[in-house]
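Lecture 7, part 2: worked example. A protein chain together with zinc ion.
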Amino acid sequence: MVPKACPDCRSGRLYGHGTNGQTYRDTPIHGKTVQITVNRRRYRCQNCGKTLFDPIPDLDAKRLATSRLIAYVRANCFQEPFAVVARRVAMDEKTVRQIFGDYVEELESTIRFVTPRILGIGEIKIIGDYRAMITNIEHHTLFDMRESRKKPEPLAYFKTLRDKDRVEWVAMDMYHVYRQVVQATLPQARSTTRAEAGVQGFAFRNDKLVERNLLLLRATDHQCLY
Ligand SMILES: [Zn+2]
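Predicted complex, written out as structure tokens:
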């Protein structure tokens, strides 16, 4: 397939610029990592000088991986720690986190979830930043992911949360900001710790730090209940 236009400047004036063998990671087979090498035609844009490859739908446009491997990573990140997924597909953990981060962004822009009856607030470190993670504990699903856990962000978020009357329970860390925000914006909801809520969902499997917090919470459950 010949690319139609330059992705940078949209110019259609492209000319052949040789071929280049590229190695892509693919989904593991019988527990073994798989790589495939594809000889791709290269083009150069006459307008801006950018080089690009012939588009192949089965290959991910952003990373040296097949589309099905990206799908595999996305699906498995909901079940297992990033490090485990990373090892199995021979990618570094940072890349796996980034793939998952992109996926979450995509979900945010395309899907509207029903406001949870039992809402969990946790956090996850993606590419060096802590983000507030809102989960539906009843259904073990991610409800939303917020850019920051600093007070103005969750405050604005919960103030304007749609159908917030639906929330009956909030399970969260001892992080004081969340407690204050929930008291101010979801006065009808009863609060508990996530440990007390018996959360085994994906929120705690994907990040060691979150798991450590959870252990700490378990140790102090009685003090945590309020
Ligand atoms: Zn161009």
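The chain is about 30% helix and 30% strand. The longest helix spans residues 93-110. Keep this in mind for problem set question 3.
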